[in-house]
Write a structure and sequence with these properties.
Order of helices and strands: HHHHHH
Radius of gyration: 14 Å
Number of helices: 6
Structural class: mainly alpha
CATH topology: Serine Threonine Protein Phosphatase 5, Tetratricopeptide repeat
Largest sheet: none
Number of strands: 0
Helix content: 40-55%
Shape: globular
CATH class: Mainly Alpha
Number of domains: 1
Low-confidence stretches: none
Mean pLDDT: 86
Strand content: under 5%
CATH superfamily: Ankyrin repeat-containing domain
C-alpha cells in the first residue's frame, strides 16, 4: 500500500491508529522495522493520543495473546523489547506512563534508556 502512495501516518482499523502503533502493539518486529525504514514517525499518536511506544508498553501488560506469531509469553515479551529498542533508536520519547504500563522486561529496557518512576 505504501508503494501505491497511501500515507504512512494514515489511521484506520477498529481503533484508529497508525500502522506503526498497531505493529508496535502487536510486537510485530519486522513490520515495525519496515515502517520505520519507510519513514513512519515514532511520535505519531493514535486515537487515545498515545504513541507507538505507549501502545507497545500497554500491550506488554494487557495484550496477552495479541502477537499470534509468538509461541510463548516469553517470546512475546522478547519481541516487545526488540520492537521498543527499534522505536527508541528511531527517536521515540519515553513518557512516565510508558514505564508505569510496562511489563518487567520492558520496564528494565526503559530504565536503561533513562526512564524514571513517576515522582522521581
Amino acid at each position: 500500500m505504501l508503494d501505491l502512495g497511501f500515507p504512512i501516518e494514515a489511521k484506520g482499523g477498529d481503533f484508529p491508529a497508525t500502522a506503526l502503533n498497531l505493529a508496535s502493539y502487536a510486537a510485530h518486529v519486522e513490520m515495525v522495522d519496515l515502517l520505520l525504514a519507510r519513514g513512519a514517525d515514532p511520535e505519531a499518536v493514535n486515537h487515545f493520543g498515545g504513541t507507538a511506544l505507549g501502545a507497545l508498553a500497554w500491550s506488554s501488560r494487557h495484550g496477552d495473546g495479541v502477537e499470534v506469531r509468538a509461541r510463548t509469553e516469553e517470546d512475546r515479551q522478547r519481541n516487545l523489547v526488540i520492537a521498543a529498542e527499534r522505536l527508541l533508536a528511531a527517536g521515540a520519547r519515553i513518557l512516565p506512563q510508558h514505564l508505569a504500563n510496562a511489563s518487567p522486561p520492558l520496564a528494565e529496557l526503559l530504565r536503561r534508556h533513562g526512564a524514571e518512576e513517576a515522582g522521581d
